[in-house]
Amino acid sequence: MASKTVPYVSTVAELRKIVARWRKAGERVAVIPTMGALHEGHLELVRRAQRKAERTVTSIFVNPAQFAPTEDFDKYPRTFEDDLAKLKGVGCDLVWAPRKDEMYPGGFATRIVPAGAAEGLETDFRPHFFGGVATVCTKLFTQTGADFAMFGEKDYQQLCVIRQIVRDLNLPLEIVGVPTVREPDGLAMSSRNRYLSADQRARAITIHHVITKVADAAGKGRGLEKAIEDGHAALTTAGFRQIDYVAVRDAETLKEWSKKAGRPGRVLAAAWLGETRLIDNIAVPAAKR
Amino acid sequence: MASKTVPYVSTVAELRKIVARWRKAGERVAVIPTMGALHEGHLELVRRAQRKAERTVTSIFVNPAQFAPTEDFDKYPRTFEDDLAKLKGVGCDLVWAPRKDEMYPGGFATRIVPAGAAEGLETDFRPHFFGGVATVCTKLFTQTGADFAMFGEKDYQQLCVIRQIVRDLNLPLEIVGVPTVREPDGLAMSSRNRYLSADQRARAITIHHVITKVADAAGKGRGLEKAIEDGHAALTTAGFRQIDYVAVRDAETLKEWSKKAGRPGRVLAAAWLGETRLIDNIAVPAAKR
Questions:
Q1: Considering only CA atoms, which of A191, A182, A190 is closest in space to residue A209?
Q2: Largest alpha-carbon pair distance within chain A?
Q3: From the list A107, A118, A253, which residue is nearest B116 (CB)?
Q4: Between chains, do B139 and A169 touch, taking CB under 8 Å as contact?
Q5: pLDDT, tens digit, for every residue of B238-280?
Q6: What is the rounded CA–CA span in Å between residue A97 and residue A226?
Q7: Cα(B172)–Cα(B175) distance, rounded to whole angstroms?
Q8: Which of A124, B31, B152, B284 has the greatest number of beta carbons closer than 10 A?
Q9: Partners of residue A9 on adjacent β-strands
Q10: Measured between alpha carbons, how far is residue A224 from residues A120, A217, A265, A285, B125 in Å?
Q11: What is the count of residue pairs from A and B with beta carbons less than 8 Å apart?
Q12: Shortest alpha-carbon distance between residue A171 and chain B (Å)
């Protein structure tokens, strides 16, 4: 008898019991860390996970440790029943939905502080962010004992930071980056897009156009500074009220990039449309030979 | 043919290959983290480990991240051949002896920052210390994939900090604390004892006498302040040139202790004899009923 939704557990003990049963049967496990409010981008992570592992666990936890007091923790969308239905639809095996006091019990006092890929960009504007992400993701990895963890390229710096902590802490799992899923017009899917009014939604696409043009200039090796300048102007014209950054960086280390070095580059941007902060990124096209 | 010494590996890849073979045979693994310069206290950790797990791995790594620039990293005793012979003697299965660049490769940038049990005491005098310990121990746990890790009570605050990070980060192993091994006169065994001159060695035992008297007063619930005062005086008379602390704390949280709360207490002390810093600790005797 098929259940109407995917099963979920909310304690580490229950989670480990189920995973141990899978392991005993020789099955590999992939975890898909999310904060819920699932969209097609998340479901694509589950589908990719199913190609890597026999079992998939999607975690749903709105992690207070990665929000500053001024940020949108309270209004962050929570759509748990809808999320379960969507996960059932793509055949996810289990939802890991801990309560806050299961994730951070009384006396909790340990922080993982990433540097390297965590320096600059998001950290200049959200200094608390990657510490919160690194700590909760490490816990999701150790709680599930997963062989694979799936992360969207949409949060590109986050993906680089996670790769860094997994390497640095010798965490025994493989991090899999999955290309950003976009709306038909090119806007990167994001749980925060639902904050946008219809008018803002129409103008939001400018961020994608801007990084595409900057990436093109970077790839050609000419007009990069002007493309970034024009990009700032285009975002302002489109009604973005603040531009946190439009930057080209080394695609792995996120340090300064120059075409001369011959390494892959990545264009990353973050900007505010009303009260909504949008981020996006795209690869610098490889030089044609 | 029995080898003359215990086998050792120096890369994570080799280590994991051997441990995977053990796991496949259903064997459990205990790790004994050390900085080498092994003495009877370390060997006791190996013997205890053998009661918990089929396989024992002793790590030998003098961890630069837990020494301040002013501390004794360079002169810390390194006695690798002698350590291997001792470990062979007690039947340890494997030595994990990474080089520095295997533990901290180029680009390494992640720190684990413990709080809670890490606050005060050692941290007041060695603020860098537990961050370095927490990071390297987490790596030793993930590198070995051990089921158990053995720590001596000699470094009592360290044991509490390790328990804290294992709990906070959901690391899937059990931390086993092992009572301090002492010389016939009561001095806690320590790799740093070899720094002591014969004259200092004779006077070093005062630290053990002092904490014993303080613990006795704490257990009786009278004369605690005076016992601590007398202890300071006794250490100074014995030639200790600086007393970092003589303190009674909650045996688990290391927060302030009072007999009224009815919780286990621990007396901890740290003091300098010449250029050698000695630490020791002892349980507050439980109230007789």
A1: A182
A2: 61
A3: A107
A4: yes
A5: 999 999 999 999 999 999 999 999 999 999 999 999 999 999 9
A6: 47
A7: 10
A8: B31
A9: A96
A10: 20, 5, 13, 13, 51
A11: 82
A12: 6
**CATH code of the domain occupying A191-283:** 3.30.1300.10
CB B135 within 8 A of CB B65: yes
State how far the Cα of A120 lies from the Cα of A126, in Å rounded to an integer.
Answer: 10
Q: How many CA atoms lie within 13 A of B117 on its CB side?
A: 22
**Chain B residues touching A111 at Cβ < 8 A:** 112-113, 115
Taking the CA of residue A109 and the nearest CA in chain B, the distance in Å comes to 5
Select the residue from A61, A169, A173 to test the B interface by mutation, using most B Cβ atoms within 10 A. A169
Long-range contacts of B199-202 (CB under 8 A, 24+ apart): B200/B239, B200/B273, B200/B274, B200/B276
What are the CA-CA distances from residue A196 to residues A34, A105, A143, A205, A281 (Å)?
A: 21, 35, 35, 12, 19
- The phi and psi torsions of B276 (rounded to 5 degrees) equal -105, 130
Q: Give chain B positions within 8 Å (CB) of A167.
A: 105
Task: Residue A115: list chain B partners with CB under 8 A.
Answer: 109-111
B120 and chain A: CB distance < 8 Å anywhere?
A: no
Domain boundaries, chain B: 8-178, 191-283
With contact defined as beta carbons under 8 Å apart, do B86 and B43 qualify?
Answer: yes
pLDDT in tens, A99-143: 999 999 999 999 999 999 999 999 999 999 999 999 999 999 999
> Do B195 and B215 meet the contact criterion of CB atoms below 8 Å apart?
no
Task: Give the whole-angstrom CA distance, residue B33 versus residue B58.
Answer: 6
Q: A231 CB contacts (<8 Å, ≥6 apart)?
A: A210, A211, A213, A214, A246, A269
Query: Is A37 in contact with A61 (CB distance < 8 Å)?
Result: no
B31 phi/psi in degrees, rounded to 5: -110, 140
A213, amino acid identity: K
Q: How far apart are CA A117 and CA A130, in angstroms?
A: 10
E strand residue ranges, A227-274: 242-250, 265-273
Chain B partners within 8 Å of A169 (Cβ): 110, 112, 135, 138-139, 142
Task: State pTM to two decimals.
Answer: 0.96
Extract the runs of DSSP E, i.e. beta strands, from B19-132. Answer: 29-34, 55-60, 94-96, 110-114
Q: Is B29 on the interface with A (CB under 8 A)?
A: no
Per-residue pLDDT at B1 exceeds 50: no
Residue B110 contacts A where some CB pair is shorter than 8 Å: yes
Report the distance separating Cα B180 and Cα B282, nearest Å. 9
Indicate which of B141, B168, B250, B252 best probes the interface with A, i.e. most A CBs within 10 Å of its own CB.
B168
Q: What is the pLDDT of residues B165-203, one digit of tens each?
A: 999 999 999 999 999 999 999 999 999 999 999 999 999
Q: Could you tell me the fold of the domain covering B8-178?
A: Rossmann fold (3.40.50)
- Chain B touched by A116 (CB under 8 Å): yes
**CA atoms of A117 and A114, how far apart (whole Å):** 8
